[in-house]
Amino acid sequence: MADTDVVVGVDGSPSSKAALRWALDQARLTKARLRPVIAWEVTPYTGWGVLAHEDFGDAAGKLLGESVREALGYDPPLDVEVVETVLPGHPAQMLIDQSAHAALLVVGSRGRGGFAGTLLGSVSQLCVQHAHCPVLVVRGKY
């Protein structure tokens, strides 16, 4: 990972797809590499059946790929290198860790969880408070 990367958090939500589109434009302007990142963790709930850790990682990777193609188009951009990254761990912590070697971290204002009326989700709030590089929170459609 290079210190010029634009890292963007992805969870499949409309907000993260808007963040992806904004991050692509920024990567083009700054001639940076775009690194969409999705993180997954095993929930402590029981009764979900037995799934291997690889199953969670595979599902996250598929969601990331679908989100990238939906947000950026089905033909990959030729002018920006896009490196999709799937990481095991809490989404906020993984994005904060990735921000240590990034020029910019981009996140959507709200993801899949939480309360519909909140202006800022828990992951984006933690990233704003603890990231090692500048953070841009994309609100609304882009």
What key phrases describe this protein's structure?
alpha/beta, Rossmann fold, 5-stranded parallel beta sheet
Q: What this model shows, in words?
A:
- With 142 residues, this protein is an alpha/beta fold.
- It has one domain: HUPs (Rossmann fold).
- The chain has 4 helices and 5 strands.
- Strands 3-2-1-4-5 form a 5-stranded parallel β-sheet, sandwiched between helices.
- Helix 1 crosses helix 2 (53-72) and helix 3 (91-99) packs parallel to helix 4.
- Mean pLDDT is 87; it is low at 114-119.
Which bin fits the share of residues in helices?
25-40%
Largest sheet features: 5 strands, parallel
What's the number of helices? 4
- Strand order across the largest sheet: 3-2-1-4-5
Give the percentage of residues in beta strands.
15-25%
**What is the structural class?**
alpha/beta
Head-to-tail CA distance between termini: 26 Å
Order of helices and strands: EHEHEHEHE
In CATH, the architecture is 3-Layer(aba) Sandwich
